[in-house]
């Protein structure tokens, strides 16, 4: 297997890790207005992800750095063409992260309400725009090759807001919301757990319908794709896992529901990667001008060096993250939340 393909897979795995892990973070943030009826409720919700949310976001940083090093043309073209959506994502992530740390720094309901709003919108906007971006990658964007090498995006922000990509954005947002609600049910007890399960049941039904529509649309749009069999297989596994997760949640088996949602997100992204490969960006102007994995890759020596670094560092990252989740595996209760409003909300 060529190193260009290997690094396409590695970047894909890192993005899957990001959406699986930060996905439930986003879902917990989205749940604040629905499950956080009191300040203590909201503090319980934030504490479910308090020890891990920043660690989860590092997967995006690592994925972005790997993309920059392995496929600099992809990085440059996508970040110039999708500049405004990616900037909005960055601002949303900053406001969300700051809010986790600052909401408990002063007394007063108005102070915490402001930061709770930042957490909510900072959890809704990124998955919505990420879904729009990834849907556009396989749907095709106005892309041209330029003299001297490279590619140029010739569209606008409005070009990205087409029906297919908007549906993709909504589906990714709902997947994250459902994933987060199941995580809340997995990490809490009593009324909080019951309410999270009930909301996950209702949101999950809508997610199943819209996700099925998106996957079918994707298959139909790529009916002539040489990877069609792989696309259908990944889409089918994603659909079955989502249905299985919903059934497990209804039965009160949050652990299996969480696993099912994890498989769903992973294979939904694999469906997109299968529809994309061997391209990185598909041109809607002329398919011959699409950006390919080989054409956008770094030099062979760069890829070889990066491969050795990945071989030694990725296992360490996985071991550390696994240890972190093991340490903070216990369920949370209201009794664990300090009475003092100034208490560390993300301790």
UniProtKB/TrEMBL annotation:
Gene Ontology terms, cellular component aspect?
cytochrome complex; plasma membrane
In terms of InterPro entries, this protein maps to:
Cyt-d_oxidase_su2
Q: Name one GO biological process term.
A: aerobic electron transport chain
- Give the stretches traversing the membrane: 6-32, 74-98, 118-138, 166-190, 202-223, 229-251, 263-285, 305-328
Single GO MF descriptor: metal ion binding
Compartmental location:
Cell membrane
Pfam annotation, one family: Cyt_bd_oxida_II
> Native species of this protein?
Leucobacter komagatae
The entry's keywords: Cell membrane, Electron transport, Heme, Iron, Membrane, Metal-binding, Transmembrane, Transmembrane helix, Transport
List each coiled-coil range: none
- The name this protein goes by in its record: Cytochrome C oxidase assembly protein
Write out the similarity annotation: Belongs to the cytochrome ubiquinol oxidase subunit 2 family.
What is the recorded membrane topology of this protein?
Multi-pass membrane protein
């Amino acid at each position: 297997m060529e190193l260009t393909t290997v690094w396409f897979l590695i970047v894909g795995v890192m993005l899957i890790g990001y959406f699986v892990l930060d996905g439930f973070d986003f879902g917990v943030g989205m749940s604040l207005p629905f499950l956080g009826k009191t300040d203590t409720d909201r503090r319980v919700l934030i504490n479910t992800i308090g020890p891990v949310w920043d660690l989860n976001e590092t997967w995006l940083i690592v994925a972005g750095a790997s993309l920059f090093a392995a496929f600099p043309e992809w990085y440059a073209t996508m970040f110039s063409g999708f500049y405004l959506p990616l900037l909005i994502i960055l601002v949303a992530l900053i406001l969300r992260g700051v809010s986790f740390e600052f909401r408990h720094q002063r007394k007063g309901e108005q102070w915490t309400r402001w930061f709770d709003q930042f957490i909510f919108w900072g959890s809704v906007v990124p998955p919505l725009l990420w879904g729009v971006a990834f849907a556009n990658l396989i749907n095709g964007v106005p892309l041209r090759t330029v003299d001297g090498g490279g590619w140029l995006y010739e569209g606008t922000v409005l070009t990205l807001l087409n029906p297919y990509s908007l549906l993709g954005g909504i589906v990714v947002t709902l997947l994250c919301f459902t994933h987060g609600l199941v995580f809340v049910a997995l990490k809490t007890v009593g009324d909080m757990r019951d309410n999270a399960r009930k909301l996950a049941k209702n949101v999950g039904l809508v997610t199943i319908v819209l996700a099925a529509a998106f996957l079918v649309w994707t298959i139909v749009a790529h009916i002539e794709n040489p990877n069609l069999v792989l696309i259908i297989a990944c889409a089918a596994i994603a659909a079955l896992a989502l249905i299985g997760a919903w059934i497990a949640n209804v039965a009160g088996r949050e652990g299996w529901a969480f696993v099912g949602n994890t498989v769903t997100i992973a294979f939904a992204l694999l469906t997109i990667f299968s529809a994309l490969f061997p391209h990185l960006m598909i041109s809607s102007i002329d398919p011959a001008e699409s950006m390919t994995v080989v054409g956008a890759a770094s030099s062979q020596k760069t890829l070889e060096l990066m491969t050795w670094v990945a071989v030694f560092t990725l296992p360490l990252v996985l071991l550390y993250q696994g240890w972190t989740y093991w340490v903070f595996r216990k369920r949370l209760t209201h009794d664990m939340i300090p009475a003092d409003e100034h208490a560390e909300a993300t301790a």
